[in-house]
Backbone:
């Protein structure tokens, strides 16, 4: 059974059909890309997968469990974590605490324990600090653990968002344009990071991307959206040589 | 490790801050005992304690949760009148005034928390200005309800009436809350010591909350609701948690405040009081708990100090000018640069660890 199964997924906003009859499967451990021109509905698909929007038709299953109608925080508990196209960090919190919030449902203690700093508070906090520092090290952010998230440079903010998502221990990681606004060097570094993350955290990755170099470099399989519909799918080589895809991208 | 050193420093800082509060209490207590404080200043001690608790608890809603509430006095009112009723009921059975006050405060906290849930569930669906306006209305509603509330006590128990006292008390019965006339003949059992203990408890619990998984969740919701949702934080749950805890402490402050006067009316807990407390919070710095404490003390004591300095004609003018000046300073580039310079000096002092 595939990790993620999307069947006949569709959503309308008033008269606009943003996504229509989308079928997708993502296998356990795969690195899959979702590409398409601006306005094709890629982020809308992510928003449906994470419960921000409720699809009007179709089904989404993660490990066989239905996701439609679940709230975003419930879907996170079920094993989907994401990053955002426009970075959404907890700007006033330190880098370390941004990651620690990701452990919210992983490492828990009760409200009385936190009001009195009693019981397992100290032990659990220490455990979170250590785990968070480990994740930060992977992203080379451990030196800046006490910076406010807002004060990090752009590329590092992107990395911190991935780090925070990984802290929730997801089965499936959704990356929404991770390379947006990055220069070629940063993009190359990011590709390495994504590969590393996948191996180290044993996580399946679905990413939205415009950067063709990134997509063809690391993705094993691609889905191409255009005007909310699936235009093509296959390996990067197949898809990028598909004349329909080229037309859609170049606007022929 | 670098991180552990940092944690030790934060702990040391808060120990120092708590130390200053305790020293302040001892000094004021000594001054009062030796009769070195004027009547007005010593009369201000309990209200100041109540204002501190109000400011710290409102900071939880406004600074930590990031939602503007203009009805904090409403929760104080609920706590005040609950406390009055409870202490009156317990007057015969619980001899020790401190214990009676403590029980009343717990009851007040519970009552205010219940009202906090009732108000919070619908209100916290709103955002920003809308939420502010609804909380403002809530404060006014509470004031108007208490204004027409009649509660009497006799040997048969408590009697309630709204708009008119629809009950007649037995011989020897006592009218506790008498509509617009309010409450009179209160047993003044609030003391500076009680206020001080309440401040310590409030600071301890709220600072602990902020430095915990729940506190981080609340601040995460403040900084970015959608991102908080995406990492598995139930935003409604944590908004409500902050709002209700904030209300509970306002309730306790209400009891402390009310039991310091022989008469209390609903009109005391009006919009002006909510705004006054909000001024403490904003001037002390949003999210800065110790700032709220300092602002509450300074801004309550300042008018009285100016009076003592024979500044009587101009004291409210000075007060207003100072408020404006502080506000400008808080938002200025000048302050930003001061903070940056301090941070740089600190960075120079501790050489960077070479990886």
Residues:
């Amino acid at each position: 059974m595939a990790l993620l199964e999307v069947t006949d997924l569709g959503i309308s906003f008033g008269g606009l059909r943003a996504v229509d009859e989308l079928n997708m499967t993502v296998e356990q451990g795969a690195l899959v890309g979702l590409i398409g021109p601006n306005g094709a509905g890629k982020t809308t698909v992510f928003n449906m997968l994470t419960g921000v929007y409720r699809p009007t038709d179709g089904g989404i299953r993660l490990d066989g469990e239905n996701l439609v109608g679940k709230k975003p925080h419930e879907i996170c508990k079920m094993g989907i974590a994401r990053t955002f196209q426009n970075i959404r960090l907890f700007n006033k919190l330190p880098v370390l605490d941004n990651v620690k919030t990701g452990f919210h449902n992983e490492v828990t203690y009760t409200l009385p324990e936190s009001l009195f700093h009693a019981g397992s508070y100290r032990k659990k906090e220490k455990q979170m600090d250590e785990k968070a520092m480990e994740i930060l090290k992977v992203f080379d952010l451990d030196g800046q653990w006490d910076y406010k998230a807002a004060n990090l440079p752009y590329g590092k903010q992107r990395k911190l968002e991935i780090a925070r998502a990984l802290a929730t221990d997801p089965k499936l990681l959704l990356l929404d344009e991770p390379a947006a606004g990055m220069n070629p060097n940063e993009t190359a570094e990011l590709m390495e990071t994504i590969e590393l993350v996948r191996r180290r955290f044993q996580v399946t990755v679905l990413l939205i991307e415009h950067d063709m170099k990134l997509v063809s470099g690391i993705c094993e399989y691609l889905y191409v959206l255009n005007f909310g519909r699936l235009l093509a799918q296959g390996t990067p080589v197949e898809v990028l040589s598909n004349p329909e895809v080229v037309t859609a991208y170049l606007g022929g | 490790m670098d991180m552990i050193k940092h944690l030790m420093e934060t702990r040391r800082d808060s120990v120092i801050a708590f130390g200053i509060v305790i020293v302040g209490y001892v000094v004021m207590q000594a001054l009062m005992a030796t009769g070195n404080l004027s009547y007005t200043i010593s009369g201000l001690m309990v209200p100041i304690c109540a204002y501190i608790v109000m400011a710290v608890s409102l900071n939880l809603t406004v600074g930590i949760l990031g939602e503007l509430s203009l009805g904090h006095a409403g929760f104080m009112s609920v706590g005040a009148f609950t406390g009055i009723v409870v202490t009156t009921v317990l007057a015969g059975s619980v001899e020790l005034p401190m214990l009676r006050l403590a029980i009343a405060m717990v009851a007040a906290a519970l009552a205010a928390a219940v009202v906090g849930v009732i108000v919070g569930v619908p209100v916290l669906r709103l955002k920003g200005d809308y939420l502010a306006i609804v909380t403002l209305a809530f404060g006014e509603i509470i004031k108007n309800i208490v204004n027409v509330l009649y509660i009497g006590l006799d040997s048969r128990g408590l009697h309630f009436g709204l708009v008119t006292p629809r009950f007649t008390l037995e011989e020897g019965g006592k009218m506790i809350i008498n509509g617009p006339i309010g409450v009179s003949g209160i047993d003044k059992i609030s003391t500076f010591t009680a206020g001080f203990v309440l401040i310590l408890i409030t600071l301890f619990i709220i600072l602990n909350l902020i430095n915990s998984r729940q506190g981080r969740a609340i601040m995460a919701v403040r900084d970015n609701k959608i991102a908080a949702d995406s990492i598995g934080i139930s935003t409604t749950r944590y908004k409500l948690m902050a709002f209700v805890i904030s209300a509970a402490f306002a309730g306790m402050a209400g009891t402390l405040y009310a039991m310091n006067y022989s008469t209390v009316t609903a009109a005391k807990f009006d919009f002006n009081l909510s705004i006054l407390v909000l001024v403490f919070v904003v001037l002390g710095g949003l999210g800065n708990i110790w700032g709220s404490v300092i602002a509450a003390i300074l801004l309550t004591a300042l008018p009285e100090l100016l009076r003592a300095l024979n500044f009587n004609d101009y004291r409210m003018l000075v007060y207003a000018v100072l408020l404006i000046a502080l506000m400008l300073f808080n938002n200025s580039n000048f302050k930003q640069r001061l903070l940056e310079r301090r941070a740089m000096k600190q960075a120079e002092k501790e050489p960077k660890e070479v990886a």
Summary: Residues 351-355 of chain B have pLDDT under 50 and may be disordered. The longest strand of chain B covers residues 149-154. Strands of chain B lie at 149-154, 157-162, 174-178.
